[in-house]
Hints:
Blueprint (H helix, E strand, L loop, with lengths): L1 E5 L11 H14 L3 E4 L11 H17 L3 E6 L4 H13 L4 E4 L9 H13 L5 E5 L10 H10 L3 E6 L4 H10 L4 E4 L1 H11 L2 E3 L8 H8 L1 H22 L7 H12 L16 H17 L6
Parallel strand pairs: 1-2, 1-8, 2-3, 3-4, 4-5, 5-6, 6-7, 7-8
Helix pairs in contact: 1-2, 5-6, 6-7, 7-9, 8-9, 9-11
Amino acid sequence: MILATCLVPWREDGTWDEPRLRGCIEDLVTHVTPHLYLFGTAGEGYAVTDDQFRAVTRCFTTTMASLGAFPMVGVIGTSLGSVQERIAFARDLGVTAFQISFPSWGALLPAEVDAFFAHLCDRFPDVRFLHYNLARAQPVLTGRDYARLAARHPNLVAVKMGGESLDTLADVARAAPALRCFFTEFAYLRLADTCGCGLLSALSACSPRLPAWIFEAPRERAPEAEALLRAVHAAVKQAMEGRTVIDGAYDKLYARLVWPDFSLRLAPPYVGASEAGFQRFRETVSGLLSDASLSPP
C-alpha cells in the first residue's frame, strides 16, 4: 500500500490551522491513500507541545474516522515516559497504529534498543507499531536486528526507511519477512517487485497523481519515474539555496504546490523555504509535472 504523511499548517501567530488540516486530510484520502500518518519527522512531531499534540491528534483521528480511513500517529520524544503518555492518549481516541523512532539525543546501546521496544510494545500489546529507521535517531537497525525484535514483539509490524542503499533495504525486507517495509520512491522502484515493499510517499507528494502512478507499475515506469524524481530533487535543492534543513521544510514545499494556501512555516526555531525559493521550485516542478501529465488536479 501507499503510506503518506499529514503536515501541520501553521498560522503567522504560531497557532495551527484546523480547517486547512482537515481539508488536506480529506484531499489525501480522496486522491492519494487512506493510510495516513501524523507527526512523523516531516510532520514536526518533535516540535509540538502536549496541548498541541492532543488537539491536532483529535482533529486528525476524527477526520480520518469520518472518511473511513486508517490513521497512524507518530510519537517522537527524548522522554520515553512522555512517549508512553501520548500513545495512551491517542489509543483512547481509538488509534491502533503508531509510528515510533529512537530518541535523537544520542545513539542507543544494544541493551537500550531492547528496552525501548519492550517499554512500548509490551506496555501496549493491543496496538501496532511501525519503526522509522533513520540516521538522525541512532542506531540504524539491520535486518538481523528486526528479525530478532519482530520475533520478540508480535505487535512490531512494520518499518519505514529512506535512502537508496538497496542492499541495506533489501536486507531488512528479506531478513525480517514478518514486517511490512515501506521505502521511499527510488528504492521502491527498484525493490517493489522482488521485496514486496510498500511505497512511502516523499518526493512524490508534490502531486496527488504521482504516488499511485509510481505504485501501480514500478518496473515499467521506473526509468521515466526516476528521471522525473531526480529533476524534482534537484529543484528542491535549488529552492533551499544550499541550506540543509529539517525534514518538514522539504515536505511543505510539496504541500504548497498542491494547496496554494498552505503555509511554508515551521514550528520555531526551524526555518523553511523562502517565498522566492518556493516560486523557483513551483516554476520548475509544475513544468515537469505538466509534461508528464501528472499535474495536481
